[in-house]
Design goal:
The complex is a heterodimer of chains A (257) and B (341). With 257 residues, chain A is α/β, with parallel strands linked by helices. Chain A has helices at residues 40-47, 92-97, 110-122, 138-152, 173-188, 200-206, 224-227, 230-237; strands at 2-11, 14-24, 29-33, 55-60, 63-64, 77-80, 161-165, 192-196, 209-214, 217-222, 241-245, 252-256. Chain B has 341 residues and is an all-alpha fold. A two-stranded antiparallel ribbon of chain B has the order 1-2. The chains are: A alpha/beta (257), B mainly alpha (341). At the A-B interface, strand 6 of A face helix 10 and helix 11 of B.
Chain lengths: 257, 341
């Protein structure tokens, strides 16, 4: 449903992304992994049309992504950014309601309010509804924005695309896993998610495929068990690692050092 | 929450009605008949008595002007604060008002020969167009100065305002020096502001601008809320950020310009009204925009009525009153701001 052809992104004569080709199918949970500065966030920003890329084009559901209207695309695609504003002088439910802004003109209808409530429950922020956003902890703020992004894509359109840049930052372990399950539930309904993750074990546990980026190139784009080999990961991250079995689930896990 | 807002809207509206009626009855001039009789007689005969002249040609237009001016200044202030994401970004502090005054003063002094040939409506229209241009040019100047990569540096924004205000001070000072007696009176009233010169032509013109402008700005609540997330996030919610910014800049300049052209510098309304409302409603612009219009109208009407009454038979320039009210609030905003740093 999303094809990326020959994407190049240059900043001051230096390629941050070079010759990226990708194809993402409906229902795929794809994790973007790689060391710092590999171009993970840049790739996500390009797909989100946030920055102008020097070459390349995107086809989203058989149409050039630029041919979608500004008011139409929010119902198909949403993005969670790595850095969220900390100073928003609003109540939390008012922020989550922003996810519904593409759907109503002046006043939200009951459906919009129900969706806000639903996602605040799912992200376990429901008890914060009437609290002020600025008084929340970093992780709670993060979950408010996760709720906002999910409620933005709550509609009957098929094959939606969710872009998440390090959504697990600041979250405690339980909420990391709960958030991953929310993303997984989303992709089970024939939607796709592209998620920048740092933890390779979490990525391999949840993602259908991994994009391993290294210095602006795709090192490999394949299933986790194929991407995550001892030699490749040690080389890309320039740090020794070994692969072993999880004592309970028998999945392979990576240990660094 | 929805019900609560409706209650506030109705309360403010009733407050406005009370203020309107009170303002109508209070003043240096005592009417010998009741309001309805005065208006009735005038409509029947078509000839002004002293009573009907004061009521219909002086007091009513002035009251309407106060309502329009207050709501225009308050809603533009609220919109600009949303646009610049800072509670200090009000039209007077960032120099928009001064820019409008500068152009209006230049028009009066250098355009006096042309102005006298024009019929009143066009004379006033020319003046407000020039004031609008002054406001818009200043706005674009301070915006370009203070914004880089979508972020506004509030310090540069405010200092640009100081620079423009200084320039205006110099030019109006010079104009005062070279102007004739009649022009002089026109120029000096600007530095302190006054609604005393209101007439029906001016009211009509300002009404057209304020009605058009506020219909546009009242629709920007969602956009201004989304802008608090950041420009990229707002774009993901489907807002054309550049287009919205342009609209808000042009419309606020238009409103501030036309109000300043006729009433001079009435400071602090655009700063104080949203600040008070934020205490109760946080920064939800869907609520702030309509309520700021109502509260702005009430506050300016009350201030104008006081300015008419406090030193009878003379009157106090209204800018003095709004400054007395606004300056302490300005300082308290600064104290809050310092705490956040």
């Amino acid at each position: 449903m999303l094809q990326v052809h020959d994407l190049n992104f240059k900043a001051r004569d230096r390629f941050l992304l070079k010759d990226i080709d990708l194809e993402i199918n409906p229902g795929e949970f794809i994790a973007i992994v790689g060391p710092n500065g590999a171009g993970k966030s840049t790739l996500l920003s390009c797909i989100a049309n946030e920055i102008k890329y020097s070459a390349g084009n995107f086809t989203f559901k058989h149409k050039d992504i630029k041919s979608y209207s500004k008011t139409d695309i929010p119902m198909h695609r949403a993005k969670f950014s790595q850095h969220q504003s900390h100073e928003i002088n609003l109540k939390n439910d008012e922020i989550v309601l922003m996810g519904r802004y593409p759907y109503f003109h002046n006043t939200p209808d009951n459906n919009d309010l129900e969706i806000v409530k639903l996602w605040m429950q799912k992200t376990e922020t429901h008890h914060l509804t009437d609290r002020e956003y600025e008084q929340l902890s970093g992780g709670e703020k993060q979950r408010i924005h996760i709720a906002r992004v999910f409620s933005q894509l709550e509609n009957d359109i098929e094959n939606k695309l969710l872009l998440l840049d390090e959504p697990l930052n600041n979250l405690d372990v339980a909420h990391q896993f709960k958030t991953l399950h929310l993303i997984k539930d989303f992709t089970r309904k024939q939607n796709s998610a592209l998620v920048v993750l740092h933890d390779l074990n979490i990525a391999s546990q949840f993602a259908d495929k991994l994009i391993l980026l290294n210095k602006g190139n795709i090192e490999l784009f394949d299933k986790p068990e194929i991407v995550l080999t001892k030699e490749r990961i040690s080389r890309v991250y320039q740090y020794p690692c070994s692969i072993t079995q999880h004592p309970v689930t028998q999945q392979s896990i990576i240990l660094f050092g | 929450m929805k019900k609560k807002i409706a209650v506030y809207k109705i309360t403010f509206f009733l407050l406005l009605i009370v203020a309107l009626v009170t303002a109508l009855y209070l003043g240096a001039y005592d009417f010998s008949q009741s309001m309805i009789e005065i208006i009735g007689t005038y409509l029947r005969t078509g000839v002004h008595t002293p009573d009907s002249y004061v009521l219909i040609e002086l007091r009513i237009p002035r009251i309407l002007m106060a309502v329009l001016t207050g709501s225009a200044l308050a809603i533009s202030g609220t919109s600009l604060q949303g646009l610049f994401k800072n509670p200090l970004a009000s039209p007077d502090l960032i120099g928009i008002t001064s820019g409008a005054v500068l152009f209006a003063a230049l028009t009066i002094v250098f355009g006096s020969t042309v102005m006298h040939l024009l019929p009143p409506f066009f004379r006033y229209a020319l003046l407000s167009i020039m004031a609008f241009l002054g406001a818009l040019l200043t706005m674009l100047f301070v915006y370009k100065m203070a914004t880089s990569n979508g972020k506004t540096h509030i310090l540069i924004l405010l200092l640009s305002g100081v620079a423009i205000t200084a320039l205006t001070g110099a030019v109006t000072g010079f104009l005062t020096y070279i102007s004739t007696e009649e022009e002089l009176r026109n120029i000096t009233f600007w530095s302190l502001g006054s609604l005393a010169g209101s007439n029906w032509w001016k009211v009509c013109l300002v009404f057209i601008v304020v009605a058009f402008g506020s219909i546009q700005l009242l629709r920007k609540g969602k956009t201004l809320n989304a802008l608090m997330l950041g420009e990229k996030e707002a774009a993901h919610l489907g807002f054309d950020i550049e287009k919205n910014k342009r609209q808000i800049i042009v419309i606020s300049s238009l409103m501030v310009g036309s109000v300043v052209a006729f009433n001079g510098t009435i400071g602090f309304i655009g700063l104080v009204i949203p600040y008070i409302l934020r205490f109760v409603f946080n920064s939800n612009y869907n609520i702030l925009l309509p309520l700021s219009m109502l509260l702005g109208a009430v506050v300016l009407l009350v201030a104008d009525t006081i300015s008419r009454l406090i030193v009878i038979p003379a009157e106090l320039p209204i800018g003095i009153l709004t400054a007395i009210m606004g300056a302490p609030i300005f300082i308290s905003i600064l104290i809050n701001y310092k705490r956040k740093l």
